[in-house]
């Protein structure tokens, strides 16, 4: 069989990887920021002894554990696809990406896994200092994990530091050049900031939900909303600045991706317009019904009204990325970024007027914007990955030459299975997380026993139903 439902094996493999990555990307983008938030909450508890911070820690650590688990499971599935659907790519690029992926496991995943249990269950067993250290190590581990993964992805975008072997493999020649490739610093800063902003919006959305439910006297709700709005107010403008720097780096190393993002089918030697909206038509190489601002694109990208920008007409059509997808995913990402900044600025205004916990329309907007970080990071990923097509290693290895010699029916069947299983399993997990979020952090959160693991490991206290969370809680019957 040559195709499956009208699609060939390469297209189906791309859809499958895109689907699984989109699911997976949601979880690390949350855990990276949430791990740092938990570390801050725990540090504030140790410094102030305010039970509210401990209550918030226990409220969010349960959600973190579930999200972390779903992220690990969804990530394992992606690794298998390198061998099943993209074996040619794995063979050719394995000498470069294999060690980098191994470093991620050795330096980041083991760090997270080693300290995760202590963070979740060990407060009453190892002492507050070691528990704080474990919590910080989990946060550091998530950031290190992102660093290695983004180094791999950035090398595929801006490859350097390699030589070609006689068997067609990409062999490492300079590991520093490979790891610290030209787009890596910008991509890392942009992605980490996006994770922190995503977490702030989720936490702010949950806090706003409870404020709208009349729980403004709950100190935990007030603190989580206030902290989230501070984060949004500071990080959202920073993210826009970092995004602009990343865009300029992309213009230098991947100009055709920027041309697709901007909808520039034709070159503009004396100033390019900024196309706000329109319908890119790749067949006619035009953007229909476009709304544009003359020369503004050149001003943004070259800092000159008359700056020259190359268009997609400078490369063959079979090397052009799918413009419509890149054009619109970029606008979704940027549009949400400015909305996030608007939420942060509005919160500053409400805070200055002393109405942060009474601004009902701000709370409604914060609830609506709660999941926007996930949408933005997926839109950004689509812009990055679809924008580099038709290359899997930009300018060197084409996607069409990277897939496994599989029948389309085999890939299509596994794709359908993935869709069904993912929506059932991960849909259930997300539903449970939303159920946890629907309940406010109550004072009783502080009395949940951190060490309540398996009975044989928890000691006699668990058998008798006692809690040992802090000195004030010792021996309290449940």
From TrEMBL:
Keyword annotations: Cell membrane, Electron transport, Heme, Iron, Membrane, Metal-binding, Transmembrane, Transmembrane helix, Transport
Topology in membrane: Multi-pass membrane protein
Cellular compartment(s): Cell inner membrane; Cell membrane
Biological processes, Gene Ontology terms: aerobic electron transport chain
Recorded GO MF terms: electron transfer activity; heme binding; metal ion binding; oxidoreductase activity, acting on diphenols and related substances as donors, oxygen as acceptor
Pfam families: Cyt_bd_oxida_I (PF01654)
Compositionally biased intervals (Polar residues): 469-478
UniProt entry tagged with the keyword Cytoplasm: no
Domain of life per record: Bacteria
Kinase among keywords: no
TM annotation in the entry: 25-47, 59-80, 100-122, 129-150, 188-211, 223-242, 325-349, 361-382, 415-434
GO cellular component, one term: cytochrome complex
Region annotation (Disordered) ranges: 453-478
Family: Belongs to the cytochrome ubiquinol oxidase subunit 1 family.
Protein name: Cytochrome ubiquinol oxidase subunit I
Gene source species: Pseudooceanicola spongiae
């Amino acid at each position: 069989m040559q195709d499956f439902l009208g699609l060939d094996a390469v297209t189906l493999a791309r859809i499958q990887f895109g689907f699984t990555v989109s699911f997976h990307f949601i979880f690390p983008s949350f855990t990276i920021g949430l791990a740092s938030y938990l570390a801050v909450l725990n540090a504030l508890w140790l410094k102030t002894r305010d039970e509210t911070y401990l209550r918030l820690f226990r409220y969010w650590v349960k959600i973190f554990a579930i999200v972390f688990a779903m992220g690990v499971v969804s990530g394992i599935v992606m690794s298998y696809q390198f061998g099943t659907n993209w074996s040619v790519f794995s063979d050719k690029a394995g000498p470069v990406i294999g060690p980098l992926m191994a470093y991620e496991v050795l330096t980041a995943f083991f760090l997270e896994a080693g300290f995760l249990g202590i963070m979740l269950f060990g407060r009453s067993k190892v002492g507050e200092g070691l528990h704080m250290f474990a919590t910080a190590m989990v946060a550091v581990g998530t950031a290190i994990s992102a660093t290695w993964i983004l180094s791999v992805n950035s090398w595929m975008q801006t490859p350097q530091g390699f030589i070609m072997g006689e068997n067609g493999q990409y062999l490492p020649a300079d590991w520093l050049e490979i790891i610290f490739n030209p787009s890596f610093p910008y991509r890392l800063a942009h992605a980490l900031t996006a994770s922190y902003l995503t977490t702030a919006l989720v936490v702010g959305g949950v806090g706003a939900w409870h404020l709208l439910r009349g729980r403004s006297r709950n100190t935990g709700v007030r603190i989580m909303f206030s902290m989230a709005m501070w984060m949004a107010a500071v990080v959202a403008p920073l993210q826009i600045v970092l995004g602009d720097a990343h865009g300029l780096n992309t213009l230098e190393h991947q100009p055709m991706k920027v041309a697709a993002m901007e909808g520039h089918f034709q070159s503009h030697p004396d100033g390019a317009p900024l196309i706000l909206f329109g319908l890119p038509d790749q067949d006619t190489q035009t953007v229909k019904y476009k709304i544009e601002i003359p020369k503004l694109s050149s001003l943004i990208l070259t800092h000159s009204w008359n700056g020259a920008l190359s268009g997609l007409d400078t490369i063959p059509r079979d090397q052009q990325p799918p413009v419509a997808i890149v054009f619109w995913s970029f606008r979704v990402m940027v549009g949400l970024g400015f909305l996030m900044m608007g939420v942060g600025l509005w919160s500053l205004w409400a805070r200055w007027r002393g109405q942060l916990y009474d601004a009902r329309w701000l709370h409604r907007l914060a609830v609506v914007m709660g999941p926007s970080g996930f949408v933005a990071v997926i839109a950004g990923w689509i812009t990055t990955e679809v924008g580099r097509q038709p290359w899997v290693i930009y300018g060197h290895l084409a996607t069409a030459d990277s897939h496994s010699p599989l029948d389309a029916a085999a890939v299509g069947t596994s794709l359908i299975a993935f869709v069904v299983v993912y929506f059932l399993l991960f849909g259930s997990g997300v539903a449970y997380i939303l159920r946890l979020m629907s309940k406010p952090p109550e004072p009783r959160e502080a009395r949940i026993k951190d060490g309540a693991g398996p009975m044989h490991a928890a000691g006699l206290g668990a058998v008798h139903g006692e809690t040992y969370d802090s000195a004030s809680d010792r021996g309290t019957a449940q």
